[in-house]
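Suppose you are handed only these lines of text.
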Amino acid sequence: STAIEKVLSGQNIVVVTPTASGKTLCYNLPVLHTILQDPQARALYLFPTKALSQDQMHEIHDLVTQMQADVKVYTFDGDTPQSARKAIRSAGHIVVSNPDMLHQGILPHHTLWIKLFENLKYIVIDEIHHYRGVFGSHLANVIRRLRRICEFYGSNPQFICCSATIANPKNLAEKLIEAPVELIDENGAPSGEKHFIFYNPPVVNAELGIRASSVKESQKIAQRFLAHGIQTIIFARSRNRVEILTKYLQESVRRHQNVAGRVKSYRGGYLPQERRAIEKGLRNGEILGVVSTNALELGIDIGQLRACVMSGYPGTIASTWQQAGRAGRKVDASIAVLVASSSPLDQYIINHPEFFFQRDPESAMIDPNNLLIMMSHIKCAAFELPFTESEKFGYGDFVVDATPDILEYLQEKGVLHFADGKWHWMAETYPAEAVSLRSASTENVVIIDRTAEERVIGEIDYVTAPLYVHQDAIYMHGTETYHVDRFDWQRKKAYVHQVESDYYTDAQVKSNLKVLDVFKHEETRAGGKAYGEVSVTTVPTMYKKIKFRTHENVGWGPIELPELELQTTAYWVEFDADTREKLAMSQDELGEALKGVANVLGHVAPVFIMADPGDIISLPMVRSPFTDLPTVYIYERYPGGVGLTQKLFQAHSDMIRAAIDLIQRCGCETGCPSCVGPPLEVGERGKEAALQLLMQEGG
Ligand SMILES: [Zn+2]
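From them, the structure of the protein bound to zinc ion can be written out as follows.
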């Protein structure tokens, strides 16, 4: 009720609720109230995915029917038929959409949406915790464009945002909409008893420090729940792991009559109808077990399950809470089990439960002024409405002071044209089409099955495609395995055919890094720390064939694909000549020590920033051409970076201490996957050497 009062008094708000209960009323009630009083009033709802907007449609339709109100609610997304679009534009009181559609389908055609923009009273942004990193930085720019269009049509809408539990909901909301926001924290939904278990698989080889596979242990735990008819969700970190776990689970429950055939896999890259069917099966209980990537950690309605098994630490505290939150009932007890893998990050978390339970969920970070991202949206904005001479893009503290310079640059490029005091769009292309909000790459690779009749079975993003659908890769989808016959990178197509494979493939990548610019450099005890702009080239070189179940290496093959270049930001630690002298290490030992330090830092770093382990990559160089010193780089995977490396620079000392602590606590003798890496990778003295090196910096 506080939420509703605040909204009706004209304030922007962000509502934090741990579950869906009651959340939607916070925006539906004030919106409906306003529309009933003023039938001209309009509202725009934004959800991160189509699936979420569909859920929302049902709920608001029910509400409108109950109230017997004449309020028209429509979904407007990629699936909306052309014939229906005109009616939605003119008559829809509430338009339910997503950021991508707003960006490509609504803003560029604002002249067709005059009714909406002239009368827009509310903009609802649900699930804002999803808008971090690249996606969030894009959304902030889309909102800038939206506000700009509203100003043009003379409206000044209010924002209602909703978030799951994160450390900085108010700050994130204010960064997204660039205006003051009131925080309303309603963490108090009633719930049944809940158990949270941290499980570290037993050590099976003490000398090498190898633990039982987290995949197999997760399977065993999930299998027990399923055998007792307990609806269970299993989260795995990668799409490959999801498919492997599903395969194992389906085989292991085959003899349980009531469970066989009721375990499914779920991840991005499946076709929409396939995903909808699984969501429905979970809601009505037909599906008993689902193995998923983090695609299901978001608010998609699958009902409340009783058990959640996380195969590997999800990467951030916020994600872990969200995944664990999938299990939870109003009355019954529920359980969440975190099964640690042998990665250093997992081992750090599982050995420091206090770190997890006492720390606030991470801050969600966005960088609306990331040059690449902002520039694309200035182009889109110029297409929508010409910029005036004194106009600046953005609002409040984040307003882009460099707007005139950027516009001038775009004129030089022949994209804009200055006339009568305004910058006009003059290129023939349509800028929004070339900009995807979801990741750095603008397109996906389509996966085509040619076993029988040609059919599309899924998609994969352009950047990771070389790792998963290179020629001769085994592509896993649902219960099936496919052989990749040809990967056509130019046309973004991968042709596959179904095979019975007893192995899967794992691609290896080679990288090189060049420093382009140093933003900040400081001396430290053992040398220095810095962050700046870098260029990284990567090329997949070969793949390994890994046998299902035993996980033994049964062969390899080459991958022949061109290099990918990435301009991004990196943080680095360098070790000076004094340090090297003190340690008296040979070149080889130093190389091994650096590999160990890079492994540990790369795995500990995500703990200190709101990042997925996959968002950053560490790279050791025995003699970096730039620093001329032994250096460990950690770079961001997204073009331009989103500010993670600056945070790493600030967290430097804490990270070094955490890395030392992790190595010292690890029970292995000479290095293992849980600390610096196995001796095969870092050498027999790798663990000792890495520790010595780190002690020089922060011991
Ligand atoms: Zn170890």
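What can we learn from it? The chain has five domains: 2-185, 194-358, 371-428, 444-501, 506-698. Residues 209, 666, 668, 671-672, 674-675 surround zinc ion (CB under 6 Å).
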